[in-house]
Task: structure prediction
Amino acid sequence: MAARGARVMLSTIADYTRLTKDMGKSLTQVAKQPDVSRETDYFFSHIGNVKTIDDFLKDYRLYSYAMKAYGLSDMVYAKAFMRKVLTEGIANKDTFANKLTDTRYREFAAAFNFAALGSKATQTAAATTGTATQYVTQTMEQKAGDQNEGLRLALYFTRKASTIKNSYQILADKALTQVVQTALGLSSTISSADIDAQAKMITSKIKLTDFQDPTKVNKFVQRFAAMWDAVQAQSDNSTNPALVLIGGASTTTSMDTDMLSKLQSIRFGK
Result:
């Protein structure tokens, strides 16, 4: 049983290292997959025909591709909301997108900047190749999550880390919140606490400027992966009837708890 536990403990960080060692190769492999290639071909062949926000929103296949690219698939139905995001743009701090804590809307409005560029908004590199790259990256993370949710979260955090400027951005994004809570050994129940209290707790434990340093981001992701796999292993072992019958569950759980305690005592950046 120890061998199985060791394998589980290494799974997330091993898969993460394999994928990120040559990210270009990993993305190319995903881009060549038939379903991804088909949707990307459609996007490139039709995006140039879009001249207005209405054109964009009317082509569901095109619009949903773009939304997925920026992690907004769950908001595809909210066309009135997204129309407001695109109509006001990002020219000043008072625009709708700039007032939203979730930076994904600002990124989307910047990529498809109809407010500033009008009919030429879909001709920029950000709107074309940039969006396609984002789509492939999102798809890679999604497919990784089908096998290991911890891996998806690790990849997502790595991609978004450098954009984090304050704790509220983390709290506005469920995936970022889950990574940070897991890495710090915080219970998810803390999310029910006052938002300002949560933000203060995060800044007391993490130096957010460290997320501008790829080496420190990698260290944080490794800590998350270790915590994630430890929790998963503990959960699997504690609910395994066979282990309970042979009296092994309590021993395994105790070992995992000790490991969790040690990981939780490590303050990121120290």
Summary: Confidence is low (pLDDT under 50) at residues 1-9, 239-270.
